[in-house]
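Model it.
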Amino acid sequence: MSDFEADKIKKVNEALNTCTMCGFCKSVCPSFKSVGWDAGSSRGRIILTYGLLTGGLDADDSVIENIYTCTTCADCVRRCPSTVDIVEVIELCRSDLVKSGHILPKHKAVADSVDKYGNPYGEKETVVKTLGTAPHKAKIGYFAGCTAAYREKKIAAASLSILKKLGADFTTVDEVCCGSVLQRIGIDEEKSIALMKKNVEAIKALGVETLVLSCSGCYRMFKIEYPKFVDVPFTVLHMSEFLAKQDLKLKPLGEVNVTYHDPCHLGRHCKVYEPPREVLKKVPGIAFKEMKFNKSASHCCGGGGGVRSAYPEEAMDIAGTRLEEAGAANVIVTACPFCVANLTAAAGDRKVKIVDLTELVDANL
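Modeled.
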C-alpha cells in the first residue's frame, strides 16, 4: 500500500507524463552501466516509482535494489531533453518505501546511528573531540562533516592545518550530521530538519560569518536544502572556493601527471567547477590534464546516494570505470571525502594516488 501524499503523487505523474522514454539517460547513468538492466536506468526507475504508486508493483527485493542503486549523481537530469528532475522522483520513492516499512538493513543502521550518536558511523566521540580543537568565537567556521572527521581524517587535518598556516580567524563547530545521508536514503524529513536547526544554532552561537566545508555533500545541504527549512545567516563556502580566494604560495609537485574528478554534489548539484581548478593552477608548473568527462559531464565515482553502504559491489564497479577514465594520471585530485574514499577503495594495485584538494595544498603550502 503506497503512502504517497497528494503533492508527491502529482509530481510523479508529471514526471511520467513528461518523460518521453528516449533513453538518453541510459548513456550517462553510472548504475545502469553497472547493473545492465533498463529497470536500473533513470527512465526505468520512473516507471518503477509509478508502479509502486498505483499498486501495480510490489516492493520486492528487485524493485528496491533498482531504486536504491541510484547514486543521485544527477547526470540524468543534465542529459534529459525533457528536463525531468529524476533524482527528485527517486528520492520521493525512497521516502515512500521507508514510510511503508521497506528500509535496507544497512540504511537502517545508518539512520539509527545518526539518531543515537549524531553521525552515520556509530562513533561515540563528537566531531569536535575527534578534531581536537575546541569551538570559540570566530568569523570563520570550519565544518568537517562526518566522513572527513571519522573516516578520511587526513582531509579534516589538512583543512585545519591550512587555516592555521593562513592565519585565519577560525573555529571548529559543535556539529552533528548535516542530514544529507538521511535525505538521500529516504528517512523522515523531520529528522533532517532537526539536524539542520541544531547545526545552524551551533554556528550562529559562535558568531560565524563564513562557514567553510570539506564535504561536497554537506556543502550541498547548506547551499540548497537548509535554506528551504531554516534561515542560514552566514556565507557558505566549499573549501575549494575558500582556497581559490587565497594568495597561496605553493611548491611544485615534481614530475607527476594530475587530473581532477568533479564530485557530483559540488559540480552538477551546486555548479562549482572553476574554484578547484583555480587552486590547481596556483601550483607552479603543474602537469594537469582534464578527464574526457569533466565538469557538468563528469562521471560519478559511485560513492553517493547510499549505494556504497547498501550495494558496495556496484559502487566499486562504478568507481573502477571512473578510474579507467583517468588515463595516464598519477594523481587524481578531487574535493569530497566520499569520492576520495570510494575511488581509493576501488584503486587496488593501480599506480594512481587519489587525494583531496586540501591534502595537496597542505602538503605543498
